[in-house]
Design brief:
This protein is an alpha/beta fold and 386 residues long. Helices cover 54% and strands 12% of the residues. The strands form two sheets. Strands 2-3-4-1-5 form a five-stranded parallel β-sheet, with helices on both faces. A two-stranded antiparallel sheet has the order 6-7. It is globular.
């Protein structure tokens, strides 16, 4: 059998990787690389822990810019400091994609800070909060009816007069305009400090890739500095999306393992990066909610690049086909911003005479969108036939 034996494939897989998990975007290293954005967050958290001054924070930025990575690391540091200094602080981390309503959020908070007597809804929360709370709400844009819950947390001492503890909120979202969806009273009460995680620089990307190589490869020397420079450069060109860079690095290591080589031509590295890029884009298209997805379908089908034309014709047609009520023009544009933040489109402008038109250009392959559309359309057809 020779090269066609499973054992040989299995043994070869262990030759290059010491910990393949480090190439996943959801891997959190012990110590992330330093970046300036975190300094304001650390200052405000320290103010709360030392002086009880609340300074709620909204963290946003492109996909793969490290928002969740640094939030998770800060969560760990707060717990460690609270234990070391014997501080009476609770800290909770809630992913709102998994817990979309108020009761589920409160349930997770109490599981994090209490071993028993977990309340089942917000009304009972007032009696069970026995310490100041630092609350992380990741993917906060997934919360259903966020206004009531966030207003309640921001005004906790005023609403629950008998409970004098405070709640400090750190909210995270890829959707940079999310806070504008809140009502005026909630926005005013939260008084958010907006922290924008800038795209990684080429140097930062290279440092992160180098860090992961040391953690995940048996012999880090096989991933040369030239390899890292090429992947870092191409990652920078794609919104500095670290997800793509890490996926490409994993594919590169696997390719070296498979071929048994220590040198690859730049052309091959470019092919590997493109494969990683397509992989990430496909995942993002598949995970889009229906409204931004139909906006993407409209862009795919349109002959015009003008946003107004796409909205009025192809987008509305896609909505009718999927039995979905079309959004208004303002909401449609917000979904275009979501698509751009996910690295699926590019928004621009074109001037014709004295008139400036908003334009949009696809970055992903049309076939990828069409395949996903046909899958979703099939579900609609089946539901119609039931």
């Amino acid at each position: 059998m020779g090269n066609f034996e499973l054992k040989k494939f299995y043994e070869r897989k262990r030759d290059i990787f010491s910990n393949p998990d480090v190439f996943d975007i959801n891997y959190y290293p012990e110590k992330p690389i330093e970046r300036e954005e975190i300094l304001v967050i650390l200052e405000k958290v320290a103010d709360f822990m030392k002086l009880k001054i609340v300074g709620n924070i909204f963290i946003t930025g492109f996909h793969g810019s490290g928002k969740t990575l640094y939030a998770k690391n800060l969560f760990k540091e707060i717990k460690e400091l609270s234990n070391t200094e014997k501080l009476n602080f609770g800290v909770s981390y809630v992913n709102c994609r998994d817990r979309t309503n108020s009761d589920a959020v409160v349930d997770k908070i109490m599981k994090d800070i209490s071993n028993n007597n977990i309340p089942k809804n917000k009304e009972l929360f007032k009696d069970k909060l026995t310490k100041d709370l630092i609350l992380f709400l990741d993917e906060v844009d997934e919360l259903q009816d966020p206004n009531n819950l966030l207003y309640y947390f921001s005004r906790f001492r005023e609403i629950e007069e008998k409970n004098q503890y405070k709640v400090f909120l750190i909210m995270i979202s890829n959707k940079s305009e999310w806070e504008e969806s809140l009502d005026q009273a909630t926005r005013s009460s939260l008084a958010l400090t907006r922290i924008i995680f800038k795209p990684y620089t080429k140097g930062q990307i290279k440092d992160i890739l180098r860090q992961r190589v040391k953690l995940g490869i048996q012999d880090p020397a096989i991933i040369t500095d030239e390899f890292l420079s090429i992947i870092a450069k191409k990652t920078l060109e794609n919104n500095s999306d670290l997800r793509i860079g890490l996926r490409a690095l994993f594919f590169l290591a696997r390719d070296l393992e498979k071929e048994g080589k220590s040198i690859l031509p730049e052309r091959r590295i470019s092919e590997i990066f493109h494969t990683a890029l397509i992989d990430i884009q496909r995942e993002r298209v598949e995970h889009l909610d229906i409204s931004p997805f139909l906006a993407l379908v409209g862009i795919m089908r349109a002959e015009s690049i003008k946003v107004k034309d796409i909205f009025e014709i192809e987008y509305r047609l896609a909505c009718r086909e999927m039995r979905i009520s079309p959004l208004g023009y303002t909401m449609f544009n917000r979904h275009l911003m979501v698509l751009e933040e996910k690295g699926l489109i590019h928004i621009g402008k074109v001037q014709e005479g004295k008139i400036v038109f908003k334009t949009v250009k696809l970055i992903v392959d049309k076939k990828m969108i069409d395949i996903e559309y046909q899958k979703r359309k099939m579900i609609v057809v089946k539901e119609d036939n039931l």
